[in-house]
Design brief:
The chain is of the alpha+beta class. 34% of the residues lie in helices and 40% in strands.
Length: 322
Amino acid sequence: MKHISFRKTGLALLGAALLPLLASAQEKATLAVSSIKPTPSLAAAINSKTVLQATTAAANGGQKQETVVMDTKQELGRIIESLDSQLIDRINATRKFDVVGRSDLGDVMKEQDLGASGNVDAKTAAKAGKLAGAKYLVVATVDDFQDYFERAVFEGTGRSATKRVFRFSVVAKIYDSTTGKLLESANFQTGNDAFKQIQQERNYSVSSGQLSDEMMVAVARTTAEKIANRLADVIFPAKIMVKRETVVTINRGEGAGVAVGDVFNVFALGEELIDPDTKESLGREEVKVGKVKITEVNPKVSKGDVLEDTGVAAGAILRKAQ
C-alpha cells in the first residue's frame, strides 16, 4: 500500500514539475505554410530561355561582345524551391511557432484552385488551418521576377555599357485560420542594391548573367528572413522581459530580426481599441515611453541600453525605429 502511495505521490510531483513546461510549449502558436508559387501571369510571362548580346570588359582593356543565354524560368524555379525550405527554417528560427500539417495544404489549395494565385479567401484559410491543425496560415506568392541586361550606348564616343537589372518580389499574407481573417499582407522586394550587397559581403559570383547556386540561396534566405520576422512582429511583437537600471532584456535572439546597433521604440500597452462602426477590436492603444539600442544578441534573447525613458518597464513592446 505504501508502495502504491509513493508511486502516486511521485507521479503527482512529476506532473507538477512538467506543468510549467507544458504551459510554455502551449504558448507557441501553431502555423501552416503553403507552398510558394509564382502568380499565373508571371509564370506565363517568363520565357524558358533568353539569348542576348552583352558587352563585357576585354583583357586588353577594351570591350567585347558576349552571347549570354539566360534560362530565367529555371532560375526562378530554383529560387522558389530554395525560398520554400528557407521560409520554414527562418520561421523556426524566430522560436515563436510550431509549423504543422504542411502536406495537408496542397489538397486544399488544389481543390480551391488557389495554390498558384495566392488569392486565399476567408473560407479557404479557415479550412486549410482546420486540416493542418494550425491557428495561423501563411500564403506567399512571387509576383515579380526580372533578371536581364540593359545596354546603353553613349553618343559621340562609340562606347557602350551594360547594366544588369535584377528584381524579385514576394507578397506574403497571414491569416487567422480559426476565423479566416487576414491579419497582414506585405510585399517584400530585393533588387540591384541588395544583390550587390550580398555579392560583396559573401563573395558570391555571377556567371554569364545567371545567379550562382550560392546567390540563389542568399536571395531566398534574405527574403525568407524578412517574411518570418514580419510574421513574428505581427503575432508576437518583441517585448521587454526584464529591466535592470538602464539595461533591458528582450525576447528576440539570433535569426529573429535583431542586430547589434538596431534602435527600437518602446511602447506601453493601454486600453483595447474598439472600432465604433464595426465593433471590431483593433488591438490595444500603444503609448511611446522610450527608446532602446541593441548592444548584445544571444541565441534566444538580446540586451539593449535604454536611450530614452518615460516609463520603460517589463511587458512593454518594441517596434524597430524607421
